[in-house]
Amino acid sequence: MHYYNILDLARVRSEIPLRELNSFRTRPFDGREDIVVRCRGGFRSGPRFDRGVLDGKHSLSYVEHLGSLGATVLIESKERIDVEVNWILKYSNAVLYVNVIEPLLRLVLAEKGFALLHGASLSRKDKAVILSAPPDTGKTTTVLKCLIRAWFSFMSDDMTILGPDRTVYSFPKPFTISAHTYASLVSGDLKTRGLKNKLKLRIKSYVHSRTGRRVLRLVGELNLPILTLNAIGQMVVRPPKIFVEDLVRNVTVKSTAEAVAVCLLRKRGEKVTVAAPDEALDELLFNSEDAFGFPPYSEIFHKLTIKGKTALEILREEKRLLRSLASSVECFRLHSDSRNWDIMVNQIMDEILAPVTPMVETAPVILEPAVPARR
Fold first, then answer.
1. Domains, in order of start, for the chain
2. What is the pTM of this model?
3. 225 preceded by a cis bond (ω within 30 of 0)
4. Per-block average pLDDT, block size 10, for the chain (375 residues)?
5. In whole angstroms, what is the distance from residue 55 CA to residue 291 CA?
């Protein structure tokens, strides 16, 4: 068994190692789990003509065209969430985590008043800036540039935990190195250590690049067994996952900080504009939903009930928390076709954290008339 404790908010016990949660590994615990993951033979299902969700008395099951021969997921939710998967997801645990466990963590945290937000976070002087962007925009490379130049401490690259009092909590998952990020690593000014067999890493980065994910999204929109195909593909070519300590020398990691800014990364020009709170909220929600958009999330998770609350009710609570964030911090849109978001983020935080010189009240100076000199 593998045990993970995420900030005493969500506890996971799993028969399958979840590498993305390595930073939260802990001693064995019993009877206090929020999520339990098991690998069994799975439920029996014959071939089908499409993907589908089977309703049980207290459970939901996701099955694809190959039935039991493909990837299957059974989720039972009572006092805790029990997840049962078959052998395909056991040997493709990155797909298991990203497509099944992480969406469940999002619901568990939201039910407790926290948000698992798709976005990076960096800190300086105990203040945090959240970077949000659609997948494959350049967020990871921006984070790495900020870290290698020692402008910020690292908090998270992919997912950020936000508390009800605007506290940002570190969620240090390993980085997924895309083709663009790899090019920056080997040809730019990012100095790395611990990267052995760079040719193998380069091949993986291209397979798991923006184009590869676009193909997966296209498959997901078609009537094809997307979860099975994704799992088999990542068994053959493992995703390039590297922790920040192996990417940036002398990196500092910050566990908590107060959110003071949200930066929305996008292309189309070279400028920084202020984003209205409602506009920032819409983009934060859109980017999170887009990150969780692969099946079985779209088919099964909105039908779940956790501790008497439906998933839609829980996500409405998450939306209220994000609305509070957007209305209480400074929100910006960062446009850059040249991918200079790191410079823009640094300048924004310089301005926000610049010390304000207080006005010093002084006594008025009374000028007396000069006494004429005697001759």
1. 2-352 (3.40.50.300)
2. 0.85
3. no
4. 93 94 90 90 72 81 85 89 91 90 94 93 96 84 90 93 94 78 55 50 53 60 80 78 83 94 91 94 89 79 86 93 95 92 94 71 45 43
5. 25
